[in-house]
Amino acid sequence: MTVSSSSFPPLCEKISHTSFFLRVVDLTILGLLFSLLLYRILHMRENDNVWLVAFLCESGFTFIWLIITCIKWSPAEDKPYPNRLDERICDLPSVDMFVPTANPVREPPIIVANTVLSLLALNYPANKLACYVSDDGCSPLTYFSLKETSKFAKIWVPFCKKYNVRVRAPFRYFLNPLVAAYDSEFRKDWKMTKREYEKLRRKVEDSTGDSFLLDGDDELETFSNAKPNNHSTIVKVVWENKGGVGDEKEVPHLVYISREKRPDYVHHYKSGAMNFLLRVSGLMTNAPYMLNVDCDMYANEADVVRQAMCVFLQKSKSPDRCAFVQFPQEFYDSNSDELAVYLGRGVAGIQGPLYCGSGCFHTRRVMYGLSPDNLENNGDLSSSATKFLDEDSLARKFGSSKELVISIVEALQGKSNPKTSLTDFIEAAQMVGHCHYEHQTNWGKTLGCLYDSVAEDMNTSIGIHLRGWSSSYICPDPPAFLGSTPSVGFEAIVQQRRWGTGAIEVLFNKQSPLRGMFSSKIRFRQRLAYLWVLMCLRSIPELFYCLLPAYCLLRNTALYPKGPCLAITVTIVVMHCLYTLWQFINNGFSVRSWYVSQSLWRILATCGWLFSIHDILLKLLGISNVGFVVAKKTTPKTMPISGYEPIQRQDDGPNSCYIHKFEFDNSCHFVPGTFIMLVNMAALASNFVGLQRSCCHHEGGRSGLAENCACILVILLFLPFLKGLFAKGKYGIPLSTLSKAAVLAMIFVVFAVGY
C-alpha cells in the first residue's frame, strides 16, 4: 500500500548518461566507415574481386556500428532509493523468486544451494518472499540438497540479518578470513556458521558421488523410477514459513517442483519450465512480482528486491508503466559482459532494456497478457478489460485448473493472496504440470515466456515491448547479481552457439523486430535495438575479414587503400581500439583484460555464432530441430584468499590465464579458429621467403605493410590457437582438428595462389 503524498521525495529517478564527446566519437567512426565504403565503390574496377568481398564485409560492420550508435545515443538508467521505501510504503508487495535448473551434473547442487541461500537471506520481509526451484532434470540430488539447504538457512538467514552481511552467498562470504578486530560474539557466530556451511557442502558434494546416502530418505521414493525425460510431476514444499510476521529469524518459503516429462511431448526447454513456475507460484503464493535468476547467479546485493520495488511502485501509476526491471548480468570471474552493460544503459534510454533471462523482476499481470491499454491511470483494470475476468475465457487461455483461474482473476485485479497453507495446493500444482496441460491454450503464445526460440528471454522481451510496455534498467554498485562464466573453450563456445541460434530464430518468428517496423506501440529505435540480435550473423563477414589479409598476401594484391587514403583504415582501427580500451580502463579493468575480451569475442564469433547459422539452416530445411545444451557450471571453491574484499569481481578472472588455459577438444567448433590461424601464418611465411605471386593484373597495387600488419593482428587475436599448436592435453589442439584445418588451409593457399 502506497502512502500518497507529494511531499515525499521520489522512490527512483532516471539518470541520464548522455555524453556529447562519446556521441562525436561514435559519429566519427561511423563517418570513417562510410568514407571507406565510398572509397571502395569509387575504386572497385581498379582492384581485384577481393575488394567486393571486403566491401560487403565492411558494409555489415558499418550497419552493426550504426545500430550500436543508435542504441547508445541516449543512455540512461533508473536510480532507486530503497531507504525511502519504508517512509512511503506501509505494506510491501510480495515477490516470488524462481530458480530453474536442469542437470545436476552440469549444474552441481551446491551451486543451486548457494543461489537459493542468497535469495532466502535478502533484506526483505521473509513473509513476503517465496523461493521456487524448478528441476527439469528431476534429480533426487537436487531435492536432497534443497532439504539440507533449508536446514542451514535457519542458521544462515538470521546470521546475515543480525550482522547485516553484505554478500549472502556463503561460498563467497567465507572466502574472507575472520578478522581479529571483530567482537567475540560475532567471532563465535561466524565460526559456528562457517562450520555448519562446511557440513552442508560436504554432505551435498558427498551425495553426488555416493547414492547410498540418499537411500534412507523416504521422501526420495518419488524419484525411484523417475528419469530426466520420463517422469510425473513432482511438487514438494521443502520449507513453509508458517510464522508469517516478517521476523528476522524467519526463513521464506522454499518449494521444489519438477514438471511432468514424457519422450513423446515437446517441453520447450527453459521457457516451458518458467511457465510451470509461473502457474505453481500463482496457485501457492500469487505474488504480484517475480524474480527470475539462473541457478549460478547469486544475489550479491541484499537490498536488490527493495531496489526493484522502488521502480515498480514509483511507476505503477505513471503513463510510462514498467513491465520488468532488468539488472545487468555480471560475473565474479570475468568481465566479458561489459559491452552489454553499455548497451543496456543505451536501450534503457529508449523504451527500456531487453529481458536477459536472469536477474530480472517481472510483473505477474504483464506475464498474464495484460497491455497498458487494459489499465486505468490508477492501475486498476479498465472497463474494456473486464473480459479478462470471464472464467470460461480464462480457462480457454490458461488451462482447465479452476484453482489457477481463481488465482489469475485475483492477480489481474491486483488483490493480495490470502494466507493459506502451501500444502493445500500441491494436488492442483501437480495438475498444471502435466504434459498435456498447455495443449490448446495460450501458454507460450501470448502468455508467460514465449516459445518458438531457445532464446526465450529475447522472444519474451520483444513480445512485452510490442504490447506497449516499457522496462527499467538498474546498474547498482556493487552488482546486484554475480555468476560464473563457463570454462574458456568448448563450454563458452557452445553457450554462445545456443544464444546465437535463438537470436536468429527470433528474426523468423512472429515476434521478429523486422515486422511492423513503424508500429506505434514500440519505438523505432527500440526495434533497432532488437535488431542487435543480428550481431550473431556477423560471424560470416568476420570469418571472411580474418582471411582476406592472408588471401591478399598470397595473391599479392592490395586489400586496403594506398597512399594518404590508407589513413582512413588506420584511423578506424586506432580509434576503435582506444575507444574500447578507454571503456575498460574507465570501469577499473586492465589493458590485458581489454585484449583478452577482444580476442575472446573474435573467437566466439567465428567458432560459435558461425554454427548458429548452420543450425538455423538445418531447421529451415526441416532436417533437424534446434537443441538446448545446458552450459556446465563451475563448482565454487571456499578456500581462503588474500585480501579483505574477495567478493568484488576479479580484474581478469579466469581470463587472466585465458591465453594459457584455453581448452580444446576434437569438436568441429575449433576447426574455423585453427584454420584462420594456419592460413595467416602461411601467408606471412610465404611473404617472408618471397613465395608470393610475382605479377599483379590489377591497377590497385600489390600487397604491402598494411596487409602484413593485418595478418599479425589476426594472429594476435587468435593467439590461444597458436599456443594450442604446441601445448598438450586439453590445452592443445587435437590432431583430428589440426588435420581438418590443415587440409582446408592447403586448399585455401592453392586457391589464392593459383586462381
How does the SSE layout of this entry go?
Layout: E1 12-16, H1 20-42, H2 50-71, E2 76-80, H3 85-88, E3 95-101, H4 109-120, E4 129-135, H5 140-163, H6 170-173, H7 184-209, E5 234-239, E6 253-258, H8 269-284, E7 289-292, E8 298-299, H9 304-315, E9 322-326, E10 330-331, H10 338-348, E11 360-363, H11 364-367, H12 391-398, H13 402-412, H14 426-431, H15 456-466, E12 470-473, E13 481-483, H16 490-508, H17 524-530, H18 539-555, H19 566-586, H20 591-620, H21 658-661, H22 671-689, H23 705-717, H24 719-724, H25 735-754
Parallel strand pairs: 3-4, 3-7, 4-6, 9-12, 10-13
Antiparallel strand pairs: 1-2, 5-6, 7-11, 8-13, 9-11
Helix pairs in contact: 1-2, 1-19, 2-17, 2-18, 4-5, 5-7, 8-13, 12-13, 16-20, 18-20, 18-22, 18-23, 18-25, 19-20, 22-23, 22-25
Instruction: Tell me the strand percentage band.
Output: 5-15%
Low-confidence runs: 1-5, 638-660
Classification by helices and strands: alpha/beta
CATH topology of the largest domain: Spore Coat Polysaccharide Biosynthesis Protein SpsA, Chain A
Radius of gyration: 28 Å
Distance between the termini: 76 Å
Tally of domains: 2
Mean model confidence by pLDDT:
86
Q: Which range best describes the helical content: under 10%, 10-25%, 25-40%, 40-55%, 55-70% or over 70%?
A: 40-55%
CATH class of the largest domain, named: Alpha Beta
Major beta-sheet overview = 8 strands, mixed
Under the CATH scheme, the architecture of the largest domain is: Alpha-Beta Complex
What is the number of E strands?
13
**Shape by Cα distribution:** globular
User: What's the total helix number?
Assistant: 25
CATH superfamily of the largest domain: Spore Coat Polysaccharide Biosynthesis Protein SpsA, Chain A
Instruction: Write out the strand line-up for the largest beta sheet, numbering strands in chain order.
Output: 5-6-4-3-7-11-9-12
